[in-house]
Amino acid sequence: MGITVQNITGNTAMVIWPKTASCADSFYSVMYRPNWNSVLSTYSRKSFQKEERVPASRSSFVVENLTPLTTYIVCVTCQSANPSGDQCRVFNTLERDPASASNTKKELALGIWLTSSVLLLIIAAILLYGCLHLLCRRRRERLQGPNGTSPKQDHGKACTKSTSYSLEELDRQSQLMQDTEEKHPGGIQLATIIENPSACKEPVVPTSKSQERVPTAGQCSAIN
Known about the structure:
Layout: E1 4-6, E2 13-16, E3 27-34, E4 50-55, E5 60-63, E6 71-78, E7 88-92, H1 98-144, H2 151-183, H3 188-195, H4 217-223
Antiparallel strand pairs: 1-2, 2-5, 3-4, 3-6, 6-7
């Protein structure tokens, strides 16, 4: 069987063989592997790393995913039979194609760019979370005030204290009035005058019905 290898590149090669009448109703087996040691290598099917089945209607096959600058051995048999020497061919792959090398570099650069972008997004998210957390804590501390209480709470406490003081003052004034009335039942007017010193600014002239003198401004001063 005359096997030829054509269109060899750094990664592919086309294998062509003549059709065999014994494989008309069967298939062809295309086996290939790197030929590291041509002296010790054998033609057993187990020694081949890859094997492809091709329909009997075809007489060619493109071997792919080869390694550049590597020696390969390829064999073609009928119905997975063990190949013989005339059914095999040795060939060498070429250097890597410029287009393939460019695509590999582009894929590598794209992978690095994507990885860097993901890392930058993660770092930015962490920094943003830390800033927001710090701002919220400072705002909460500002609202609480230096003593740990908020201005609304301080205002409420001040209003409560002022209300309590007013109530205590009213109770004291009421108690003072009751004590004065009990001690001096007829001296309510005197107590009123003492509580309102402005009423003693002008002297009061006694009337004809009463012979008692109402204290003048000087007497008010003495009482005070």
